[in-house]
Amino acid sequence: MNTRFLALELRRAVRNGRYLIFTVVVPAVMYLLFVSLYGGGGGTFPNGLPIPTSLMMNMALFGVMAGPLSIGARIAVERAIGWQRQLRLTPLTGSGYLFTKGALGMLVGLPAVVLVCALGAVKGVQLDALHWVGVLVTLWLGAIPFVLMGIVIGLVASPDGMQAITGLASMLLGLLGGIWIPADVAPDWLATLMKVLPVYWIKELAQAPLVSGADVKQALLVVGLWVVGLSLIAVRRYRAQS
Amino acid sequence: MTETAVRAGAAVALSGLRKRFGEVRAVDGIDLVISPGEVVALLGPNGAGKSTTVDMMLGLSTPDAGTISVFGKPPREAVVAGQISAMLQSGALLEDATVAEAVGLIAALHRKPMPVARALEQAGIADLANRKCTKLSGGQRQRVRFALALVCEPDLLVLDEPTVAMDVETRRTFWQQMRAYTDTGRTVLFATHYLEEAEEYADRVVLMRSGRIVADGSVAQVRAAVSGRTLRAVVPGAGDLDLPGVRAVERRGDQFTLTCTDSDAAVRALLAQHPGAHDIEITALGLEDAFLALTGEDD
Prior knowledge:
The complex is a heterodimer of chains A (about 240) and B (about 300).
Chain A: H1 3-15, H2 17-38, H3 51-80, H4 83-87, H5 94-122, H6 129-141, H7 143-156, H8 159-177, H9 188-194, H10 198-207, H11 216-241
Helix pairs in contact in A: 1-5, 2-3, 2-5, 3-5, 3-7, 3-8, 3-10, 5-6, 5-7, 6-10, 7-11, 10-11
Chain B: H1 3-8, E1 12-21, E2 24-34, E3 39-43, H2 50-57, E4 65-70, H3 75-80, E5 84-87, H4 99-109, H5 116-122, H6 138-150, E6 156-160, H7 168-182, E7 187-192, H8 195-201, E8 204-209, E9 212-217, H9 219-227, E10 229-234, E11 246-252, E12 255-260, H10 263-273, E13 278-284, H11 287-295
Parallel strand pairs in B: 3-7, 3-8, 5-6, 6-7
Antiparallel strand pairs in B: 1-2, 1-4, 8-9, 10-12, 10-13, 11-12
């Protein structure tokens, strides 16, 4: 991986005002809003997770969805305007390009996780050091399926369609994935649907050490299937294009 | 030098190159050898196969048949080594980057790039370094593309219709900068449909039509290959002129206009037979005439 290229790409990505607003500011503000609405009074979910902790994970996941999705989707723009052709006149390989975009997606997902967790700590989420590290790392690694989803969208969509698709994807993933409606209070049909999507299971992994009865095996299986499936689609799509 | 030796030392060697898109034979059997240091114009009307040929030389597309060697390597290897670079015809620049950032991104990927500031300077856009790529005129964008191509210090620079969006003045400046670059012994291949550019800046002209090379040589040779020269003379009291190297004769009184395949032989014979001939004028047809004759459709 070319780190200098990655650093320049990162600077370009984070300078974008929309990035800062949608992937860093919005999750943080939403977290503060939800905590002030529902977080008082020391309530917990049936599995024992305090409401502020659960909300923290949900909003951090929202952050790792939006940022990485938008990074991958910019592949569509770079392909359409011919910038990819310019890149093909350099030593950068096709897989190097996709890996750089992947790493970029992971990096832009990080600030939201850190910021929302920091706000969580301020708002009274109490975990021991090891659990903090575990939660942070798990939430951050939870960006992987969304990074891949973004890359697939970037390889499939036209630049015009890309905006609509990423917007729709992050809305549906959030809504159906349990970010806005907790699975515990969702109707049965929605709860079933949630368990097909990766978001629910990433949260399951993040909260596993803190609650009783988390299904880690099932979570790893579902998330793993998403990662493998999306990678295969990305590779096939990429090969078809070059 | 033998043919193989020329090919081995060549900047570019294309042999039997073919590429088709569906039923269209975009490139239909091209053989071409370009030696290091040559400045070659690839001339032809739209759809002649210029861009397809260029794309294959750059490794951007794969030929259906034939071989390509760039400095003795497959195109992709020459690209990776930074030996060949190109100014692409179309393609926007990154909308959210400045000129210096865009060039910096490409420089970061190359193994031995020149400093970004120097690339901007050589392309004549040092003053635009901090300008957003969206806020450039057509000619300025072309020069940013030029800087993108220069930054890896290629031995062979390929330019696909480089001056399309430029006005006359910008075009002239652009070619001056290009000259400064080629004076350092670099090889340049440029595709164009501006005849005067080929005439003025190329050592050699390769004329393409319908996916084939129809003429290849110096500007003078390509001109002569089509039409030879026109000899005009006043020949007092001449009957019918019968001279070698003449294809057609037109007469108006004593004024003759001879279309020659070999004007040297014709003028010698004319003076030998008619010492009184005067006001002799030999003109070459312009490259434009050659171009039209060679690239026009046969009707």
